[in-house]
TrEMBL record:
The keyword Transferase applies. Belongs to the glycosyltransferase group 1 family. Glycosyltransferase 4 subfamily. Residues 204-335 form the Glycosyl transferase family domain. PANTHER family: COLANIC ACID BIOSYNTHESIS GLYCOSYLTRANSFERASE WCAL-RELATED, GLYCOSYLTRANSFERASE. This is Glycosyl transferase. The keyword Nuclease does not apply. InterPro entries: Glyco_trans_1 (IPR001296), Glyco_trans_4-like_N (IPR028098). Transmembrane segments: none annotated. It comes from Arthrobacter pityocampae. Keywords: Glycosyltransferase, Transferase. Residues 26-175 form the Glycosyltransferase subfamily 4-like N-terminal domain. GO terms for molecular function: glycosyltransferase activity. SUPFAM superfamilies: UDP-Glycosyltransferase/glycogen phosphorylase (SSF53756).
Amino acid sequence: MYRLSSRPARIRIALVGTRGVPARYGGFETCVEEVGQRLAERGHDVVVYCRTTEDTDHAVTEYKGMKLVHLPALKKRSLETLSHTGLSAWHLFFRRADVAIVFNAANAPWLPVLRAAGIPVATHMDGLEWKRAKWGPLGKRYYRIAESLAVRWSDALIADAAGIQDYYRQEFDVDSTYLAYGAPILESGATDRLAELNLVPGEYHLVVARFEPENHVHVIVEGYVRSRAELPLVVVGSAPYADDYTRLVTSLGDARVRFVGGVWDQELLDQLYANARIYWHGHSVGGTNPSLLRAMGAGAAINAFDVNFNREVLGADGRYFADASDIPALVHAAETSRSDTVLRGKKSQADALAYDWDRVAEGYEQLCLGLLGRRRAGGRRSGAFPLTTKLP
């Protein structure tokens, strides 16, 4: 196992712009939990800003070594992230931190608050958010503007995929720090929890995704239903503010498709990944995806939506689809050649070793120390500067 190098000076690092921890939603939250706890283990003072929900226990102020600050948010899709980050930024203005990592370029309007507080900021740009179907013309335009503001007002940019780096070089002529997510390597071989869902190891297809059009759950379900599949398709996932899309996806299913909703029990979820005949990955705009890496680390064979982010990670070990018409043949291949899926899964798991959370956390640590050192040396804050370290 890769370990972080010698212990540096302790600094105060704020992680801002997500739903917070424990991670129960998406890639940003997973990153905050995995990186934040490792930075705390390194002796840093890590503060995570969390959104208040109806079941928030305000008495809980620490999680895995990270200090938690719970603040409310407007419960409206277009304003939830922005409103919570605004409160977080003003909280930081008065409480301060040595460095802030802001997740999601959409939060760019609040970067001047952190600049005014003298806090160096790295913005994790995520994927191409403006391509998401859930946003109308106004929302898409907002995200394009927010990208340009994040480039202008951040001290550094973080990209979790080479394709995202390429986009910012081509669109804005700036470099970014490549910091992908990590892939947990699962080796237990446990299958006991599958009985809870009446599943047999190796005898089902699996989808794990937030229900959003650009994750192509509807395409996977439609294509599967067109096939003569004998093994069930298990669909794990849900999404706030997505009732219409959820109804569309469920309407496309038949008796072979099992919609089980969100699964937050990590042990059960890990067993679902590890024992699937095929993991179907439909994500298309979010860069390197934690669900994809978790499936690889679990040793699952993977069929993925044909986009550069997925090919970048899977390479020749993946099989790819562009629309529903591609899926029946892939279903047939998976169900008639178990040995091929087992071999592909082993290769993917070996590739997943390159995506190590310890190395990712060291990348964040080096970035934070570099930003603070540059700030203390009197470096001008004139937008993103080139930091092209590639980890892992």
